[in-house]
Design a protein that fits this description.
Catalase HpII,  Chain A, domain 1; hydrogen peroxide; ten-stranded antiparallel beta sheet; catalase activity; oxidoreductase; about 675 residues; binds CIS-heme D hydroxychlorin gamma-spirolactone 17R, 18S; Catalase_sf; 19 helices; alpha/beta; Hemocyanin, N-terminal domain; EC 1.11.1.6
């Protein structure tokens, strides 16, 4: 009999699981000592095609040339229709055990149980080769290889979605992606069709507010929250149910890029987030997140404090239902091959385990169809679960047969149930006592209609809640983002209509955006009472862990630099010396360095180099701590930076820098950066 929750034995088995084994080169494949064709024929030459004489035409009979080129021609698979740009890593999830009160899912309920995971982070709109730092929602998809089967938590870094019903997904994506005539703009929402759609389709308003917030430009994947978005139903060992929302809380805190910084980075290093993930893991500076759940009673009306839990455009403020940590995720291993692992991983909301069920959220219901369907064209058929990255660590015996890319040699004649011929080899249905997935019985009734519940009609109150919850600096960033994006629209009518939407959320925000666009601010009906949720705020007084941060020293690889490197390395911070030319100990030259790759900069030498002036001015504008050692004072003066400005650290040591990095940015400087006063040197 199979246990319902993984026993130590099951765990032992999992450690020698097919997934782990599969990561080694498959037996017989790519292991020979000689270069061969795909059929194993040894090849003496792969650099010259077979020709009629050295100057003659190539011969059709050259099977090696044709096999090599044909395989190459088919190396790419279709990119994901959304979330095409992403990168991933392996990790371990360890359960705290406290979730046992609400779920029987072993990977959550069994204290100390470690489960292998693969996480894929992504942007939504851009093509596979687009830049990482564009303004966009980020995907946060996690596959747990549990002993009871794979469980996929396919979430985003924003807790709400643009639409309430899956049937609108093609509409919102067609509107948000590039215009189909010219396939521009790439990976961004600052264009007519997006704003046309969301200004007409006001249920998108709450998500639009998140997309215009700093959450849309994360500093790294390490510093993002993740959300399951939908409400799920958890079931415990006694069969009791609760409604929950899943949250990932980054141990490093939630931090963002400045908008200008994000734009520069998109050109200077389009792989910024991907690189950070891979480099951090290589350096042993693992990304860490806690999984948390908000637990709400499974009431008949599926609401909580008046919030409809089936509406994916609504959050439950943490002040009403605290996020309870139930386990920890550590990303600690880079994939070996991007295509085989990151590109071929297939997530699906229907990959569930006993103890976790879906609700009737109409967006979630549609996703249950879409994710399986999309793999058929992306991965070329129904056998994608056999790909190493998608294999379950739990034993599989599914009775599926044949199909494209079938790699199992099934034996016997029986692939059906019931049967009397399979004998002990054949699979038998598993009841709940042996871990079979049995749905909690729930009454389903209703007339056949195309309609939403009345509560779904409130499109503005939570957008207002979100705006009101932000710090003034974050609010300003949102005003700037709306103004930037709407000013990129060609159609005046779209801008005006969107201002009309904003007016139903917040009057002050509307006035500021309208002023930026040079348009009159329309009147609306914003909610009269809004209770802010401080938990939504990014900028607080907290000091965060600084592992993975980068400090640049404009100077030389001297003793002082070496001492700082040593001291900050202990906290996981990388210190890079930027010198006029390369040499031992120099990681960046004046020509190759740009501000965006540093969280703080120290001017340690006197220079008037123009690129260093730009670097310092950008660091200043992006509110980064700037240190001064010795003659660096002159360099800051050359860059037009006031030594008395907030966050200019005179003669800083490792502790001073660590404290400044822990606050992420010098927030006290930001008010000085308003248009009139900004840009030192400009
Ligand atoms: Fe997805 N989504 N989605 N989505 N989604 C896909 O599946 C879809 C939605 C999310 O790293 C696709 O394998 C529909 C919400 C992530 O591989 C596709 C609807 C949320 C990823 C698809 C939604 C997400 C996807 C494309 C509306 C946050 C990347 C390739 C009903 C909770 C997963 C693929 C990865 C990917 C469909 C809405 C997150 C086409 C129809 C809401 C993180 O199946």
């Amino acid at each position: 009999m199979e246990p319902t929750v993984p026993s130590p034995k099951a765990k032992e088995e999992a450690e020698t699981s097919p997934v782990k084994e599969s990561l080694a080169p498959a037996r017989g494949l790519q292991t020979g000592d000689y270069l061969t064709t795909a059929q194993g024929l040894r090849l003496p030459d792969t650099d010259h095609s077979l020709k009629a004489g050295p100057r003659g035409p190539s011969l059709l009979e050259d099977f090696h040339l044709r096999e090599k080129i044909t395989h190459f021609d088919h190396e790419r698979i279709p990119e994901r229709v959304v979330h095409a740009r992403g990168s991933g890593a392996y990790g371990t999830f360890t359960a705290y055990g406290n979730a046992a009160s609400v779920t029987k899912a072993g990977f959550l309920a069994e204290k100390g149980l470690e489960t292998d995971v693969f996480v894929r982070f992504s942007t939504v709109l851009g093509s596979r080769g687009s830049a990482d730092t564009v303004r966009d929602t980020r995907g946060f998809a996690v596959k747990f290889y549990t002993a009871e089967g794979n469980f996929d938590l396919v979430g985003n870094n924003m807790p709400v979605f643009f639409i309430q019903d899956a049937i609108k997904f093609p509409d919102v994506i067609h509107a948000a992606k590039w215009h189909p005539d010219r396939e521009i703009p790439q990976a961004q929402t600052a264009h007519d069709t997006f704003w046309d759609f969301v200004s007409l389709h006001t249920e998108a308003t709450h998500h639009v507010f998140w997309a215009m917030s700093d959450r849309a430009v994360p500093r790294s994947y390490r510093t993002m929250e993740g959300f399951g978005v939908h409400t799920f139903r958890l079931v415990n060992a006694e069969g009791e149910t609760a409604l929950v929302k899943f949250h990932w809380k980054p141990v490093a805190g939630v931090h963002s890029l400045a908008w200008e910084e994000a734009q520069i980075t998109a050109g200077v290093d389009p792989d910024f987030h991907r690189r950070d993930l891979a480099d951090s893991i290589d350096a042993g500076l693992f990304y860490e997140f806690e999984l948390g759940i908000q637990v709400m009673p499974d009431s008949d009306d599926e609401t909580f404090h008046g919030i409809d839990l089936l509406d994916p455009t609504k959050i439950v403020p943490e002040e009403l239902a605290p996020v309870q940590p139930v386990g920890k995720l550590v990303l600690n291993r880079n994939p070996d091959n991007f295509h085989a692992e990151t590109e071929q991983i297939a997530f699906h909301l229907g990959h569930l385990v006993p103890g976790i069920e879906v609700t009737n959220d109409p967006l979630l219901q549609g996703r249950l169809f879409s994710y399986l369907d999309t793999q058929l064209s992306r991965l070329g058929g129904p056998n994608f679960a056999q790909l190493p990255i998608n294999r379950s660590q739990a034993p599989v015996n599914d009775n599926h047969r044949d199909g494209l890319h079938q790699s199992v040699v099934h034996r016997g004649i029986v692939a059906y149930l019931p049967n009397s011929l399979a004998g002990p080899e054949g699979p038998v249905p598993a009841g709940p006592e042996v871990g079979g997935y049995v749905n909690v019985p729930k009454m389903v009734h209703g007339e056949k209609v195309r309609a939403n519940p009345v509560s779904f009609a409130d499109h503005y109150s939570q957008a207002a809640l979100f705006y009101a919850s932000l710090s003034p600096i974050e609010q300003d960033h949102m005003v700037e983002a709306f103004t930037f994006e709407l000013s990129k629209c060609y159609e005046q009518a779209i801008r005006e209509r969107m201002l009309g939407v904003l007016a139903n959320v917040n009057t002050e925000l509307t006035a500021k955006v309208a002023a930026g666009l040079g348009l009159p601010a329309p009147e609306g009906k914003p909610p009269l009472e809004v209770t802010p949720s401080p938990a939504l705020r990014q900028i607080t007084d907290r000091v965060w862990p600084i592992a993975g941060r980068v400090v640049g020293i404009i100077g030389a690889p001297d003793k002082q630099a070496a001492a700082l490197q040593k001291a900050l390395k202990a906290q996981g911070v990388v210190v890079r010396v930027i010198a006029p030319v390369g040499g031992p100990g120099v990681e960046r030259t004046f020509q190759t360095a740009r501000s965006v790759e540093f969280d703080a900069v120290i001017a340690a030498t006197a220079t008037t180099d123009l690129q260093m002036m730009v670097l310092l001015q950008e660091a200043y504008r992006h509110a980064k701590p700037i240190g001064v050692w010795g003659k660096g004072e002159q360099t800051l003066a050359n860059a037009g930076i006031d030594l008395k400005a907030p966050g200019i650290l005179l003669d800083p040591d490792a502790d001073t820098l660590a404290a400044a990095l822990g606050a992420h940015r010098v927030w006290a400087r930001v008010p000085l950066l308003k248009p009139a006063a900004s840009s030192p040197g400009s």
